[in-house]
Amino acid sequence: MIYIIDHKDSFTHNVVHQFSRFDKVECDNFNDINETKLKKSNVLVFSPGPGAPKDYPLTSRIYKKYKGKKKIIGICLGFQQILYCEKGKIIEQNKIYHGFQSKIKTTNKSLLFKKDQKFTVGRYHSLKLKEPFIAKNFEITMRCAISNVAMAIENNNEKIYGFQFHPESFLTENGNLLIKKILSA
Amino acid sequence: MKKDNYLKDIAESKKPFIIYKSNKGFDLFTDFSKKIILSNKNIKNFINNSIKKKIKNKETDLYIGFFGYEILNNLIGVKINKQKGLKFPKGIFYKPETKKKLSNKLNYKSSENLKSKSTFNVNLNKASYKNIFNKFKKKIKSGETYQIKICTKYRKNSKIDALDFFCRLTKSNMAPEAFMINDKDYSIISCSPENLITKTKNIISTKPIAGTLKKSKKLNKSKALSFFKKNIKETKEHNMIVDMERSDLSKICEVGSVRIIKKKIVEEYKDLYHYVSLIAGKLKKNTSSLEIIKAMMPGGSVIGCPKISTLNLLNKQEKENRNIYTGSFGYLKFNGDMRFNIIIRSILNYQNQSEISVASGVVIDSNASHEFNENYIKAKALIDLYK
Question: Out of A10, A114, B34, B202, which residue is the most buried by the measure of CB atoms under 10 Å away?
């Protein structure tokens, strides 16, 4: 079962529908987590949401508790939440992307995706990862084709994955395929 | 009886009535046997009990009316602190016993001369608008909201003949979700273009508008489309609304059934081009009317995104009650079908005060002066009715 932790976002149910194509999904608000579902799940998904990772200490606690024990996937804010828990700095960016379609590319660090592949994605983020970012077992596996901002991470050892863009957006090409690959990794 | 005379008769009868745009013309509802004034206490029961088991499938087997902005916030758990403004009911629904079909040509002229010399006052001047605008831009930079709509209000003391106003409004602006309510102590007139919910059996759709262009001689439909496509700000706003409405529908629809039926097309109206999308899905079995309303209302395209945090930001900022503005008008049929719009481009007349609210969006690349003026342009079509 996949347990999606919702940060009260207006895109979360697109995420729910996307993951429901592959497995049974449960979804609750971050401040209303059901312990039984949390324990029973084998995949945790941190949803997109407003604000910054520092606003969601409850989600950070869940991450630290289950890191390495369950597969964890973060989307947008959820992606930043993982990086923040791994001591990454999340900062405001000059150019803001809300409802923006842009090209990104895979780096040669990915084990799941062919390198130097370019594709179109939908983005909704004010904040970004400050680099350099170094954390054990983590690789930046996708970047913005223009600005080089980090767009995806993989930690294949502990099965932790994340996307800064929105695979569930209608603006993203082949979003379902990305999720399928991550879920079967 | 001739249809034209019917309008005159209904106006003279002093009976409350409602007119709502239909496919081919307008529907008029009257002879109300029930009037339900909504509160936080009775709203859930009202919505749940709007489905009746024994129905004869009469055309009047429905409740028609509106939900105000505040009650829709409360329904999804968003609180609003005490605000100033008219103490107008939070929502009212009626059970009609008579329905008449009217053509698109509504002819009625008021016999009274109600013109007054007073002018409209606006609740935000340009400086305070800019102030709020810059505050919200910071909130966008920090990621608390991605898009937020600042509301300004125009107000003046006046008596109006609502039917006369509505007939003139439909001549200058024929909108697909136009409606009016005329009751003893208040009236509402709206040329809303936006459908929020159309539900027939287990199919539900929503048709958000994000992007409006005034017609000119140089413009045609395909030029309007290329304008919207090239305009990055309009495109981003629209994309955001499409993803938000997909998500709202996904709360109540079967997995994989939510589809964009019409993606970013231009629709032509008398004076305007609108940039619209149509999104639909198949409802999960046993979804209640209350669940549908909570998932979809208040309509996202006039609030901003993400809905909850943006509503909280708005409610902290706004000192005056929005009343009907950005609420929804429509009907709940006894068989569970429903149709609701988003109440915008509207006049509320209550206790001899007229209130016109308008809003325009702040995204990261919008400009305060432009949006402030945009608000005025939106209000002007309604303000002109008082001339």
Answer: A10
Tell me if B255 and A49 make a contact (CB, 8 A cut-off). Answer: no
Give the alpha-carbon dihedral of B52, B54, B60, B63, to 10 degrees: -10
- Which amino acid would we find at residue B361? G
pLDDT category at B3 given cuts 50, 70, 90 is low
Structural domain range at position B339: 3-130+152-202+321-386
Q: Mean pLDDT lowest for which of A11-20, B234-243, B262-271?
A: B262-271
Task: Flag whether B135 is in a domain.
Answer: no
The beta-carbon neighbor of B251 closest among A13, A51, A99 is: A13
* Cβ <8 Å between A8 and B306: yes
Q: Does A20 touch chain B (CB under 8 A)?
A: yes
Q: Which residue of B has its CA nearest to A50?
A: B144
| Beta strands per DSSP E along A34-171 | 43-46, 71-75, 89-106, 118-130, 139-144, 150-155, 160-163
Q: Is the same domain home to B85 and B230?
A: no
Domain total in chain B: 2
Residues 89-108 of B with CB under 8 A from A: none
Answer whether A99 sits within 8 Å of B240, measured CB to CB: yes
What is the domain-level CATH number for residue B83?
3.60.120.10
Higher pLDDT, B112 or A161: A161
Window 44-63 of A, Cβ < 8 Å to B: 49-52
Smallest CA–CA separation between A157 and chain B, in Å? 31
Q: Which residues of A form the catalytic set?
A: 76, 166, 168
The pair of three-digit structure tokens given for residue A20, joined into one six-digit string: 């429901």
pLDDT of B4: 58
Strands B26-37 and B91-102: antiparallel
- Global pTM value: 0.96
Interval B228-252 mean pLDDT: 95
Which residue from B minimizes the CA distance to A101? B236
Domain at A44, CATH number? 3.40.50.880
Residue of A nearest to B140 (CA): A126
pLDDT digits (tens, 9 = 90+) for A40-72: 999 999 999 999 999 999 999 999 999 999 999
Is the CB of B146 less than 8 angstroms away from the CB of A126?
Answer: yes
- Predicted ipTM > 0.90: yes
pLDDT above 80: residue B225: yes
Per-residue burial over B352-374, b = 16 or more CB atoms within 10 Å of its CB, e = otherwise: ebbbbbbbbbbbbebebeebbeb
Residues B173 and B217 in one domain: no
**Alpha helices by DSSP H, chain B:** 3-13, 43-48, 69-75, 126-141, 162-172, 221-230, 232-250, 289-296, 307-317, 368-383
pLDDT digits (tens, 9 = 90+) for A108-125: 999 999 999 999 999 999
